[in-house]
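#struct-pred

JT: dropping the chains for the assembly here, can someone run the whole complex?
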Amino acid sequence: GENVEQHPSTLSVQEGDSAVIKCTYSDSASNYFPWYKQELGKRPQLIIDIRSNVGEKKDQRIAVTLNKTAKHFSLHITETQPEDSAVYFCAASPYNFNKFYFGSGTKLNVKP
Amino acid sequence: GAGVSQSPSNKVTEKGKDVELRCDPISGHTALYWYRQRLGQGLEFLIYFQGNSAPDKSGLPSDRFSAERTGESVSTLTIQRTQQEDSAVYLCASSYHPGTAYNEQFFGPGTRLTVL
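RK: done, full complex below.
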């Protein structure tokens, strides 16, 4: 089955700096890669996603890159703000979306 | 409209008892997922329902776990003879994806299960 690894487990940055979170996956059949933000005690929310036919996608301060050959994808947050502090999860899913495999999460702390 | 809802929000049970968790998906959503999230960890896929197709049960950790869904409505996750390692937050999510198209899955608030 699929194995998704996520690094780092914790990340502390100064407000205004950039943050990068990296994930690797093992199953070449995976072709959809979402990122979720989960604030303490709340449900996960989708913040950005990418499909395997695209190398990069950007939405304001958030971007995701995908390298299918190397089987890794990354989340980039620029100009971080204190409200970006949360746990971020990457995930991978095959073409028919019948299951999602999640990374172990990255706790991002943005210091004001 | 209303989002995904789950009940109960919290459940404390004794080891060996059975528990039933409920998920009400967003109306019209064809797909429904159950996940388990242990403290400080990522989400672990349990089971997937899509319309009237046979569910994908490949993530269920043991035969003590089962889930049902009637059509595109409510789903229940049942854990029999609960063990302390079953303690976790159980999250349900639903999405609309006919065939191989896909739309975002929306999560419910979760049920926090504590097995004493």
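JT: nice. The mean pLDDT of chain A is 94. The radius of gyration of chain A is 13 Å.
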